Amino acid sequence: MVDIATRVWNHKWKIDPIVRSLIDTDFYKLLMCQSVFRNKRDTQVKFSLINRSTDIKLAELIDEGELREQLDYIRSLSLTRGESTWLRGNTFYGKRQMFRSDFMEWFEQLRLPDYHLEKRDGQYELTFEGSWPEVMMWEIPALAVLMELRSRAVLRDMGRFELQVLYARGMTKLWEKIERLRQVDGLRIADFGTRRRHSFLWQDWCVQAMTEGLGEKFVGTSNCLIAKNRDLEAIGTNAHELPMVYAALAEDDAELAQSPYQVLADWHEEHEGNLRIILPDTFGTKGFLKQAPDWLAGWTGIRIDSGEPAAGAEAAIDWWHSRGEDPTQKMVIFSDGLDVDKIEDLHQQFAGRVRPSFGWGTLLTNDFRGLTPGDALSPFSLVCKAVAADGKATVKLSDNPNKAMGPTSEIERYKRVFDVGQQQAMDVVV
Questions:
Q1: Where are the beta strands (DSSP E) in 156-254?
Q2: Is 164 a domain residue?
Q3: CA angle at 409 for the pair 394 and 258, rounded to the nearest 5°
Q4: Per the structure, how many domains does the chain have?
Q5: What pTM does this model have?
Q6: Residue 13 has pLDDT above 60, yes or no
């Protein structure tokens, strides 16, 4: 097992690439990329880095030269033969050849497009523009680079023994969480922590600890490279990016109202079983479920990713009942701001009523809260979102208005079209 503290001390971080593989990304990105490649490959999309934690001045913490060095290295990456073989030949979600030959031939030739970087008011403005299948692959590595460079900046002046103690405390903190989760009967939990991890080595350690500590309760990781290297299940379905872009491309309000369902109709053609998971909160869960076509009720489950999670699960249960479905056979994946207390509470509340599952993200792979002076390693909320498609602004409403994004006039239009009423604002933890 890698001695992370010694690696940190010895490297002093001269280049040491943060992202060393195009599959050091979330599995859902590859699934979505194939869907986009099939249905919308010529759409021109712009992605932008958004730091919701505005008090953390990334441009003052992270050297621009180091950041460019890391981003330029990512642009040099391509799939290795072993990675291509794994994607082409492995079984994912019970299906062989999940990735079609035409998509794989394209992916094997892919080099990520250029980026635009500048400083403004203590933050980095980092954007990516181009054809949707190409630029969407920047999201996860860009976030991983910014998060790890921030970690490196904090750790740079620490002594060797200070680093050893820091990581020992971090490991102990995680293991204590694992010991609590061991006691949860019927638990199903996966690592969703790639995008805002402390570092790649730390995420890999966390996954190994979960594998040993939780056994069959740990069902896999969203990180494709770690899944490949550790012989684990690659976990993930779809994300807000798809309905955001489809909606931006809509020609009128009627087409806009149908856009989230068109996303899932396209998905329905490609996937089955546990990949048929609804993500309803992009433009508000209540309106989504109210207008959803009956065929969606037959899908395997739903992911709750914003708003009050118990309320979201209750809404899903009521919806399934109203459509003649048995909620006890449905999967509910909780994935927003989870830590052990919330996982325990939600599992206790919904076990037996649905099939609860948990995608544990930032507070699995980046929880150093309380372990450094001034809490300098405390996780923060950094995202990279599609902000425009074919020149038209995208919008995300979310079930938590603090996560909403887009031009004010378009936000109001979307609220009207998607029948979004009063919303409860909640703190954005990560």
A1: 189-191, 218-221
A2: no
A3: 50
A4: 2
A5: 0.95
A6: no
CATH number, domain at 80? Answer: 3.20.140.10
| DSSP codes of every residue in 91-124 | EETTEE--S-HHHHHHHHH------EEEEETTEE
- 146 and 207 part of one domain: no
Distance CA(10)–CA(317), nearest Å, equals 53
Residue 273 CB neighbours (<10 A): 11
CA distance 114 to 63: 19
For residues 63 and 147, membership in a common domain is answered with yes
127 and 208 share a domain?
A: no
- For 69, the token pair is 């060095």
In a domain, 424, yes or no: no
- pLDDT value, residue 16: 81
Assess whether 205 and 245 both reside in one domain: yes
Across 78-235, the runs of DSSP E, i.e. the strands, are 91-92, 95-96, 116-120, 123-131, 189-191, 218-221
Q: Does 106 fall in a domain?
A: yes
Please report whether residue 122 resides in a domain.
yes
State whether residue 32 is helix, strand or coil. Answer: helix
Number of neighbouring beta carbons within 10 Å of residue 254: 9
Same domain, 345 and 197: yes
Nearby residues of 180 by Cβ (< 8 Å), 6 or more positions away: 340, 344
Q: Are 229 and 249 in contact (CB under 8 A)?
A: no
276-307, pLDDT tens digit by residue?
Answer: 999 999 999 999 999 999 999 999 999 999 88
CA dihedral 137, 143, 146, 151 (to 10 degrees): -130
